[in-house]
Design brief:
The protein has about 180 residues and is α+β, with helices and mostly antiparallel strands. It has three domains: about 35 residues; about 60 residues, Beta-lactamase Inhibitory Protein, Chain:B, domain 1; about 80 residues, Beta-lactamase Inhibitory Protein, Chain:B, domain 1 (2-Layer Sandwich). It has five helices and eight strands, in the order H-H-H-E-E-E-E-H-H-E-E-E-E. A hairpin with a 2-residue loop joins strand 5 and strand 6. It is globular, with a radius of gyration of 22 Å.
């Protein structure tokens, strides 16, 4: 054993092995994420629901829209930061698609909106807190620079109280004491 190894100093070979292992781990993680995240840039008008499901992965919900069309929800993970909504016309063909967890779609949520309209707008929440002041609180994670999550309070009658607020995302708190 060399003297520098005896006192715990890393050797060049040791650093290279750890660096290579870290690189392989990062590559594996990137490949896994690539398999989990849908590729909506391949969506096209006129695709069928089967085509969309093959591209986007498992459907997380289906909504009947007020105009008689159908909206398909593809939430990315149980607490993911992206939810894709794909609209189908009466013949089951794609007419529109959008990632709905962003500021533009949060503005569409209004005071008094019912829970079904909220689900059709933002999709299923990532987390809920039930029975808060006779209602519920729903949370959605989304991409932003401030580590925030969207929050909506639902009154006991299932209607939105206010609109969409924001609060710190506890998943971003990496401090360990």
């Amino acid at each position: 054993m060399r003297a520098d190894e005896a006192v715990g100093w890393p050797t060049v070979a040791g650093r290279m092995r750890r660096s290579a292992a870290a690189g392989v781990t990062a590559l594996a993680a990137a490949l896994l994420i690539g398999c989990v995240i849908a590729h909506p840039d391949s969506l096209r008008d006129g695709m069928t629901e089967a085509d969309v499901a093959a591209l986007m992965g498992p459907l997380t919900n289906r909504y009947a829209m007020p105009d008689g069309t159908t909206r398909l929800e593809f939430a990315q993970g149980p607490k993911g930061r992206m939810t894709w909504m794909v609209d189908l016309d009466g013949s089951g063909r794609v007419t529109k698609w959008d990632q709905v967890l962003d500021g533009w779609h949060f503005l569409k949520v209004s005071d008094g909106m019912d829970r079904d309209a909220l689900l059709r707008t933002l999709g299923r929440p990532g987390d809920t807190q039930g029975q808060y002041m006779n209602g519920e609180i729903w949370y959605w994670r989304y991409y932003n620079n401030d580590c925030l999550r969207a929050v909506v309070s639902l009154k006991a009658d299932g209607r939105v109280a206010g609109g969409v607020g924001q609060m710190p995302d506890p998943a971003c708190d990496t401090r360990r004491f």
